[in-house]
Amino acid sequence: MTQWTIVSFQDSKLSPWVNAGLDHYLKKMQHWVQLRHITISPTGGRDENFAKQQDWRKFLNQKSLQGHTIVLCDARGPDRQSMQFAAHVQKWVDLRPGVCFIIGPTYGLDRQWVANAHECIKLSSLIFTHELAQLVLAEQLYRGLTISAGIPYHHEG
């Protein structure tokens, strides 16, 4: 079973409603993938340069993500409909050792992160808080898995 990791950079704790939502979707996806969620926050509170200063390779080594396919959630990624996204989700299920989905911080990630990502995805043309982006990503991954498995969760139309 492949491992998926959702990494988010943020400078505060997640709200209880976001934790509950993430737990809900993470548990539902355990039938298909091993899933973990990592939140990285700067020490000493908010720091605009925190994520930009993170070294790409050092980060991947520290978090046991070496060899993983890196999918960056970025507004510049392609816009996809649910059925198109489901095709990518199915591809990601088969990747070994796994996939790391990264939700960047408020002030963005350094260009090295974008340059080294294997793929960029766009969650929406709208702008979300980081908490909501994590929940939207988890739900869309679950939606993609259910579409691929033929489970009646998604309704087209």
Q: Which helices and strands occur, and which strands form pairs?
A:
Layout: E1 3-9, H1 16-29, E2 34-40, H2 50-53, H3 56-62, E3 69-73, H4 82-93, E4 98-103, H5 111-116, E5 119-121, H6 130-149
Parallel strand pairs: 1-2, 1-4, 3-4, 3-5
Helix pairs in contact: 1-6, 4-6
Explain this structure to me?
The protein is an alpha/beta fold and 157 residues long. The protein has a single domain, classed as 3-Layer(aba) Sandwich (Alpha/beta knot), CATH 3.40.1280.10. Helix content is 40%, strand content 18%. The chain has helices spanning 16-29, 50-53, 56-62, 82-93, 111-116, 130-149, and strands spanning 3-9, 34-40, 69-73, 98-103, 119-121. Strands 2-1-4-3-5 form a 5-stranded parallel sheet. Strand 3, helix 4 (82-93) and strand 4 form a beta-alpha-beta unit. Helix 1 packs parallel to helix 6 and helix 4 crosses helix 6 (130-149). The N and C termini lie far apart (32 Å). The mean pLDDT is 83.
Total individual domains: 1
CATH H-level superfamily title:
SPOUT methyltransferase, trefoil knot domain
Please provide the count of β strands. 5
Unreliable runs: none
Order of helices and strands: EHEHHEHEHEH
What value does the Rg take, in angstroms? 15 Å
Strands ordered across the widest β-sheet: 2-1-4-3-5
Form type: globular
What structural class do helix, strand and pairing data support?
A: alpha/beta
CATH fold-level topology: Alpha/beta knot
CATH level-1 class = Alpha Beta
